[in-house]
Amino acid sequence: MNAIKRILKSIDTIPAFPATGNKVAQLLSKPDYSVSQVANVVKYDPSITANILKMANSSYFGSQHKISNINDAVMYLGQKNLLRAIQTAGISKYYKKGSSGYYDKATDLWEHSVAVALMSQILSKKITGEENTTLYTAALLHDVGKIIMGEFVRNEMKEIVMLVSEHHMSFLEAEETVLGINHADLGGKIAEHWNFPIEIRDAISFHHRPDLLEKEDKTMPWIVYMADEACLMMGIGSAVEGLAQRAVGELLKKFNLRMKDLEKSMVMLSDDLNNAKEIISIV
Amino acid sequence: MSDLIVGISDIKVSNSMNDVITTYALGSCIGIAVYDPFAKVGGLLHYMLPDSNLDERKAKDNPAMFADTGIPSLFKACYALGAEKKRMIVKVAGGASILDDTNFFRIGQKNIMAMRKIFWKNNVIVNAEDTGANHNRTVRLEMVTGKTFIRTSGGEMKEL
Hints:
heterodimer; A: 283 residues; mainly alpha; Hypothetical protein af1432; globular; B: 160 residues; alpha+beta; CATH 3.30.1330.200; 5-stranded mixed β-sheet
């Protein structure tokens, strides 16, 4: 069986995405949801409960006193942050093994993913004036393809690195040339396997080339791309591909941003990362 | 032996022969390793951005974030341990860019330019440099020998 067939077959071996997130999202979308209803859904998932408690106590979510039970956490976090915390807790378990072809340490992929998620919110606020929970989830998942691609990339590393260094391909292009698929497209397929909505799937599939997505009005892949590149430049969760990434020229103009805005976002991300140690530590 | 790890926007200096100072994963950021072989004092800076005018309050809290505040801080911290400028060996690495990055972020190039300007103004000669291109770098300063080593993503550790 050739590589691409084996890669696509591996998707079926990934366990279903925890239903807790979707159940809670449904509850929270009703204006009259009660704290105990939400807590009741969450508490049957012990690993999610433990992680939500950890995150509720992180200074990123602004906690000032110790939160020790799930009812308090639900009340304290509020709708937007609760949803983000639940998605983070749900997604984190797939990242526990890391991605050995791309990263030295198992935790690097998770750290990078959290950083891109936090950066996506900084950029979203700058561009649209508000944070966006769907974007947060897309950003957290943008490299999910790497959890499968890692071992295939590792086996073909010589060939991939040769294409990058001698043929000036981006790492993504080299992956696709050698293995028949790249980690972004594969990530989109994993998100489909988990029944995530199309805008999250698109943001994952096009996170290195948002200019190739024909739906012009979609900003989500662009923001994920920008957040990802910024974190890669900062060396957060640095991977084997380094900065062998394509620059998409029209990016800054598209959002009417100046270089300084991006530099300021990088400064803000440094602060957010300091406050988000608990979120990173759940993997 | 103790391993001193330099984070992003961070400086570590030492006068202990047992120390090895390391910074991981320089992308567009720059690592500057300095060493005075006479005083046996060395230090490593990992700065993120070229110019502290961006956020002066931040630069005050953490000078290591920017080239123009971080580089003087690195030298001063070494002087405090007995190093002298004229004896210092200076090695730099980092400042990578994404492919064809002509009008995109350009932070790697700006970081290199800022460093050159500061060194030129202050008559500091760079003894070895591995900057630019599009790969990440890890930099290590071994206090016992004063040697600086560099590793690019996926490669071997080599002396710089």
